Predict the 3D structure of the following.
Amino acid sequence: MHEDPQWLRMRIFAFLALSLLGALGARLWFLQTVEHERFEFEAQTNVLEPVFEEAPRGRILDRNGKVLVDNKVVQVVTIDRAELAGLDDAARQELFVRLAIAVSRSGRLTKADAIADEIADRSYGPFERIPVAIDVDPDLLVFIGERKDEFPGVEVVQRTVRSYPYGSLAAHVLGYVGPITRAEWELVTDPDEQSDKPYQLNDEIGKTGVERVFETELRGVPGISYLKVDRSSNVIGEDKDRRRDPEPGNDVWLTIDIDYQALAEKELNDGLAMARRQVIRDPTDPPYIASAGSVVMTDPQTGGVLAMASYPTYEPADFVNGISLTQFNELTSEDNFSPILNRAIQGQYAPGSTFKLVTAYAALQEGVLGTGEDAIRGIYDAYLDQGDYTYSGCFEDSDTCIYRSPFVGSRRVDLSAALTVSSDTYFYEIGGEGFWTRPNEDVNGDGVTEDEGIQKWANLMGLGTDTGIQLPYERGGAVPDRDYYRSQFDLGVFGTDQWFGGSTINLAIGQGELLVTPLQLANTYATFANGGRVHQPNIGLKVTEAGDEDDVIREIGPRVLRDLAMPSEFHEPIEQGLLGVPRSDGSATGTAWRAFSDVDFPLGSWPVAGKTGTAEVNDKADTSLFAAYGPTDNPGYGIFIDEEPSVAIAVALEEAGFGSSAAAPVAARILQRIATDTVDPARSLEQTEALIIELVAARLEEEAELQAALDAETEAALP
């Protein structure tokens, strides 16, 4: 007899239901009994705490690929704050003292109080190992590793820090890094955005120079470790599957040529030393302190900075292990002439006669220098320079209306000759009779009255505002005019808000309240050299992938602000005057001829157009200046070269005397090496050390040979 199919289906369904219920019950029993302790433990340890590891920063290289800033691996003593929790105050202090002694004996002077301060710093995360001594002797790793019981929670680990293969070379350009402050952290941290390069308090960040401006490119992607932490904040493991290794930052290439940089810094240092040795002719004159200065070289065709030297300088490596407040105060102290100051972009000086280039060009552009019957007292064709100029706008006969120059005698000069011999009276005449006494009308409809034409062209050539170079803290200088006087009067700086004729006369020779930086001055001469293109100078050349120079991420090309399109009829007479400055012939002797003659400069194949400048400073020796560019054609001497000007240079030496005797020789020595292709390669610290060892070994060998010869002679003389 067959069973009912419906009944069979019910029996099968019941069997399946009972099986499933049994399996569920068994699983429930298993979880509640056998697996209970495991799941309870995991429930207490389901918190993952991220711990960030700083990535190596990108390298900084010069235009030819020489590494200027690199990274090196150092030993760092760290402490796990959590492991100190089980120690009482006395035991903790004893540990700090014991550790301080061990570190100090290894060569890194450390105090117990300094270690305690680092441990107490709450800017470190609760699970970070706290560094208390950086760049210690590698032997300390073994010493502490063998004494775990004596140093609980202490471990020596490896980290990367900045290294400087060329020492202090280009320190002001490169800058330095340091721990990020809370203010900086808040500035670079956007709570609404998730960055792939987040900062933690006490991470390093660029503070000055290229390190600061190119921080985004140089900073790497931090590594992240995820620690498993229980509810008592005990670390019980790591989720290694989620770990991310740090990725180094990108490499930044500069327009700087480190060989040119080394040359500029050497000649700047030597030039200041020679200036200090000058003899003071008049006992009432202030001494030649020659305490500081700057040299800037740029490429007129691209605006790239080839060298930027500032003296006194500093060692960026001093910041690697943290700098003390005393050291930092010494770097910023005016008594030490502020070594931290980058005088190339922050030093502001009256340009003196180097500004006559601007005055001459403004006069030509504004029609001040007429010809024939319209000429202002024959100023363009032949002006009689007798060493002084009397301002015709004076209301009464007064000695204050007479403007004198160092020149004594009588000579006739045109525009070119006035630049070559630096005739102050010629330019006094341009300022007083040319610009000031003309009708104060806005004849061009550009908001500038004719008596402010010098300021107009100074501004167009890039003076009176920062250049826009990729370096922080640049100062803009000042091109004084009526508005400037009013603003300074409102601030209580000036005692008057009136602009007088004497102000324009002083401005015409680069004196008064006019201020420029060495970079602005070099950029002005570069602008004239290239025919009127005003560049924003570049310090950056390109950015490449870390360690791969062929993988270019970004190129930084020339940045042209404006093109002044200088007419040749304006450019040629000015350039001819500048070309005469380093020369001496029968018709005129240039103010820098001796500086270039002393170094046997090849002006026949590498003509230089330049201008000396001497700026008066109250109660101090004069500021010595020189600005130039080259090589360029010199039609007056029948010299034509198949080359565009490749270098513009500006030299400024504080309290150093005349431009012809201090600044010009510095520029002449630098340009002579460039013109003759004899620039020495810059030596790295490693190369310098090897050379010293070689010289010492040679000296010792020589002394040994002399001693051996002496011993032989003595022995031979014995009976």
About this structure: The chain is about 35% helix and 20% strand. The chain has a mean pLDDT of 86.
